[in-house]
Design a protein that fits this description.
With 292 residues, the protein is α+β, with helices and mostly antiparallel strands. The chain has 3 helices and 15 strands.
């Protein structure tokens, strides 16, 4: 029991330490020249010179209405070279090569390219001084940024309120899980502390007293009076009647046998018996033997 409780305690401490270590790892910036930018409920790692608040990643192609709101116009890229392009799945940016003539959405005021027209990815110039120390992966020369959003998908992304609700529920679940782990730790600490205290003080749990056998008294055993024995059934007795000129025996079922002696025209009822049988009396007629 003690080893099992200690094992559960170690598992609970490891589970509580996992979110802390994961958060510590996420707080570190993976690339030099990058900074953490929070857009809505998402955290992006972007080059420190890109203004994501004014022109955030949209998650899909721009519509004409979005372009008017952001004050953008569509034009071919005037200068080929290395640019930084968003990676939506990883919420960071990579360095890619864009050819001259690639269609982009550019700012009306400065003319700086902001988004790729083919997929809506957020792009920006790669500054010359950033090339020496930016460690973002460089991909092969291409004319379009990946991933490409299909024409029919429209670049659908999860609404902000739904993302906020999801993150809120997830945080609530983690909070309840932490409370459960804390309660488990307290219970295990109480059990281990009590066991340790009992071992140190020499106390043990209450032992139920065992019943003691009383000595058997000496002398003759007392006679216990019980119910009177049932007397045996009386022995069957047989009688013989007669002689009669004729004996009639009628079977009356459960009542027995009704026996009648006949002398001439006179019938003499003898009674009802359990069993009856006639015997030959020679010239005198018949006897009847009955069981009473």
């Amino acid at each position: 029991m003690k080893k099992f409780a200690l094992f559960i305690l170690i598992l609970a401490m490891a589970a509580l330490a996992m979110p802390v270590s994961a958060q510590t790892a996420n707080d570190k910036q993976p690339y030099y020249g990058y900074e953490k930018v929070v857009i809505g409920s998402q955290t992006w790692m972007a080059p420190d010179y890109i203004n994501l608040e004014a022109f955030p990643p949209l998650g899909g192609k721009l519509s004409e209405r979005d372009a008017r709101i952001l004050q953008l116009h569509k034009e071919p890229l005037k200068t080929e070279g290395w640019y930084v392009n968003e990676i939506r799945g990883r919420r960071t940016f990579e360095v890619i090569w864009l050819d001259k003539g690639t269609m982009v959405w550019a700012s009306n005021a400065s003319g700086e390219p902001r988004y790729l027209a083919s997929c809506g990815n957020r792009i920006s110039f790669l500054l010359a001084h950033q090339i020496t120390y930016m460690t973002s992966p460089v991909v092969e020369k291409t004319t379009e940024a990946a991933p490409i959003v299909s024409e029919n998908s429209g670049g659908y992304t999860m609404p902000g309120w739904l993302r906020s609700l999801w993150h809120g529920l997830w945080n609530l679940f983690l909070f309840l899980l932490a409370l459960a782990l804390v309660a488990m730790l307290l219970a295990l600490a109480f059990v281990l502390g009590r066991e340790l205290y009992e071992n140190l003080t020499g106390r043990s749990r209450d032992v139920q007293p065992q019943p003691q056998a009383r000595p058997r008294p000496m002398g003759p055993r007392p006679i216990v009076e019980g119910p009177a024995p049932v007397p045996p059934p009386p022995a069957a007795s047989f009688h013989r009647y007669g002689p009669y000129d004729h004996v009639m025996i009628d079977d009356e079922g459960t009542k027995g046998y009704r026996v009648t002696g006949v002398n001439g025209d006179t019938e003499i009822p003898l009674g009802t018996f359990k069993w009856a049988q006639t015997e030959n009396a020679s010239d005198q007629g018949e006897y009847v033997v009955v069981m009473v």
